[in-house]
Amino acid sequence: MSGIVESAGTEPARQLPEGQGGVGLPEGNAAQYPTLRRALLDAALEVFTERGYTDAGLTEIAARSGIPVGSLFQHYGGKRGLYLALWEEFREEQERRTAATLAAERDRGVADPVALFMAGARAYLEGAWDNRRLGRLVAEDDSPAGFDALRRQWDRAWVRRNARLLEVDERQRAGRVRVSVLTTVIGGAARELGDCGDETEAREIVDEVCGILIHLTTPPSSSRTP
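The structure corresponding to this sequence follows.
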């Protein structure tokens, strides 16, 4: 999971493929949904983080949330639905953060594609630190069946959006590979941030990675000495 994301308004609304999200709420429960949802997702994150996805138990998640197991199934369809909802929450928060940063930079008159990309990269990495528990969870190999394919699908979409942000012609292999490398670097750094001991170390990593990205965003022809 990586990449800098343009505003969600630049593409059709994105959602989990049919059958991969949670189960809809019955009529009449909509007003209770935000509180119930938060309780279930917070409890799921705790149990997944402590025990891993495979060993996490729905009974324990329900007990910690204070919500019956039957309601958990009704709203999320089980453990897989909870996990995917957490991933969606992390991804959407990262998108909101980077989109807001890009909008603010453009309002200041910044138009250079590389400058915008770097601002978005820093925002994404800072978000990975702020949301490190969620980020660490979805970066682990212990995940629901089929999740890797879903994650790769979104990663490919993020690479395409990054290419547009950098104004790279995706028809040219060199440019496409460069954007893919940049996106991979950001994703790898985001995973490292999840294991940082404190904010000082996290900021050092963000600064270091941004320096690497600046170097990588320089076209080869621009760095050659005449």
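The radius of gyration is 19 Å.
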